[in-house]
Amino acid sequence: MLPHIVFLFSLLLSTSHAAVQDFCVADLKGSDGPAGYPCKTPATVTSDDFVFAGLSAPGNITNIIGAAVTPAFVGQFPGVNGLGLSAARLDIGPGGVIPLHTHPGANELLIVTQGHITAGFISSASTVYIKTLKKGELMVFPQGLLHFQVAAGKTKAIGFAIFSSASPGLQILDFALFASNFSTPLITKTTFLDPALVKKLKGVLGGSG
To answer: Where is the Cupin type-1 domain (predicted)?
Structure first.
């Protein structure tokens, strides 16, 4: 009886081991779908696929928002494909802001590593949660909710965000309204903003319509 049990256990162990797929490094030449990118063949995977150095350098904050977001999503970091996480670096200059935006596909965890960041989000019940964070403090932003980050104080702030998806998605509210071809009459109708203001903001952000 014992030899049979040992045989069955060995068979089960070998079968389970064969069914395990440790990782699925993205083949970025393929198309991205709901399940992520297709996997590179194991023979072409190297240690470099699991390392990303792109967040070590500061982003360029000489722009209209005075801030930069450097992503380490699957498109930049193929090793996170299928793992349910990714990251980004936030560089926010004095007076800079990451405008109201949403990540449709992920929760976000922000940790401040330099300076102070005032951050917040708006719940589905239109309740606003805001906190000024200092170095070492964290804040979470639930999936799909509008949120923002602003430098608090007169010095540059840096933070790192971790997302619960390799492709969290991003939609910035101001850009969706004023950097698109969403028509001025419809924006006015749906937001109650003055048409002159809408046209001014479209002129600043490059929108049309």
So the answer is: 53-199
